[in-house]
From TrEMBL:
Location(s) in or outside the cell: Membrane
Stretches assigned to the Sugar phosphate transporter domain: 24-297
Species lineage: Eukaryota, Viridiplantae, Streptophyta, Embryophyta, Tracheophyta
Alphabetical UniProt keywords: Membrane, Transmembrane, Transmembrane helix
Official protein name in the record: Sugar phosphate transporter domain-containing protein
Residue ranges of the TM segments: 12-35, 41-65, 77-96, 102-124, 131-148, 154-176, 188-207, 227-248, 255-274, 280-299
Length: 355
């Protein structure tokens, strides 16, 4: 009975983490869209470094209030993880800056199959045909809804490949580090935030200048711009925390699926409330993607229930079960880049905010 109750609490916690991630990410996209498209503040990487600094300060206050316990672990792992996350954010911004929007969307879509491939090769995890089928439906739908033009160039292609690899590795590390060192999402975020922030503070102004031909330090910070920057930073606390929380409770693949759900929600928000132009192809793509997400959740839940008796038997014998839980549990296997640590949305001066 106690085990069943614990499983129910885990499921409720997972659902809460997923909802928090969706709400906070959609909110920050709306805020950043106003900040960039309307107010002209196009310095994405620098803004992300501020997000991380504010997140770290808020976590430090929470630690002082004893809302969580500081649990130091391998400093080299923390440093490498934090720097890698910072690099992946910069590469995603560069990828959008040197590629068309369509090719950038292809880059984001490639993260899921790349993550599946890496976890299959290096972690020997297995994905059922049902899971693979549902992911295929999801990717097809998002592709139909978002991909417009595909213009290839050598530099942009190399940057996209590096962005895919670093993002996949960073998201897989998020899950594996939490399980290996038995740290919570808050503890990992608190320790890795400074390294991510420092990486982006050093390289952010240079990358932003390269993409926008503007100087972030010479920008006219009006009261309105300052208010939106502060609001964006405050929302980013929830975005960053929910990112680590979701990946810790589920997996890198599930987080990517959630990221595409957020893309569809932002597109829908733009069509309905902001009167953005849309076509039947956009609507069809969103509907197909939603079907893929529903199938993915259903298959994950069904496989998790099938594995539950075996997992209980192994646990009673004192054996460890290293499968990663998904909505309930998954036989197999998150971006940080929608953003920040996947994070926040990336953009440049000529392209709209992308979820």
């Amino acid at each position: 009975m106690g085990e069943k109750s614990e499983n129910q609490r885990f499921q409720l916690g997972t659902i809460g983490a997923l909802c928090l991630s969706v709400i906070s990410s959609v909110s920050i996209v709306i805020c950043n869209k106003a900040l960039i498209s309307t107010l002209g503040f196009t310095f994405a990487t620098t803004l992300t470094s501020w997000h991380l600094l504010v997140t770290f300060c808020s976590l430090h206050v929470a630690l002082w209030l004893k809302m969580f316990e500081h649990k130091p672990f391998d400093p080299r792992a923390v440093m490498g993880f934090g720097i890698l996350n910072g690099i992946s954010i910069g590469l995603l911004n560069l990828s959008l800056g040197f590629n068309s929007v369509g090719f950038y969307q292809m880059t984001k879509l490639a993260i899921i199959p790349c993550t599946v491939l890496l976890e299959t090769l290096f972690f020997l995890k297995k994905f059922s045909r049902s899971i693979q089928f549902s992911l295929g439906i999801l990717l097809l739908g998002v592709g139909i809804a978002t991909i417009t033009d595909l213009q290839l160039n050598l530099l942009g292609s190399v940057l996209s490949l590096l962005a895919i690899l670093t993002t996949c590795v960073a998201q897989i590390m998020t899950n594996s580090i939490q399980k290996k060192f038995k740290v919570s999402s808050t503890q990992l975020l608190y320790q890795s935030c400074p390294y991510q922030a420092i990486t982006l503070i050093i390289f952010g102004p240079f990358l932003d200048g390269l993409l926008t031909n503007k100087n972030v330090f010479a920008f006219n910070y009006t009261p309105t711009v300052s208010v939106f920057i502060v609001l964006s930073c405050l929302i980013s606390i929830s975005v960053n925390f929910s990112t680590f929380l979701v990946i810790g409770k589920t997996s890198a693949v599930t987080y990517q699926v959630l990221g595409h759900l957020k893309t569809c929600l932002v597109l829908t928000f733009g069509y309905v409330l902001l009167r953005d132009p849309f076509s039947w192809r956009n609507i069809l793509g969103i509907l197909v993607a939603v079907v893929g997400m529903i199938l993915y959740s259903y298959y994950c839940s069904a496989e998790g229930q099938q594995k539950a008796p075996d997992a209980s038997a192994q646990h009673s014998q004192g054996n460890e079960n290293d499968t990663d839980p998904l909505i309930v549990a998954e036989n197999g296997a998150s971006i940080l880049a929608d953003g920040v640590v996947a994070k926040e949305p990336v953009w440049n001066s000529k392209k709209d905010v992308d979820a």
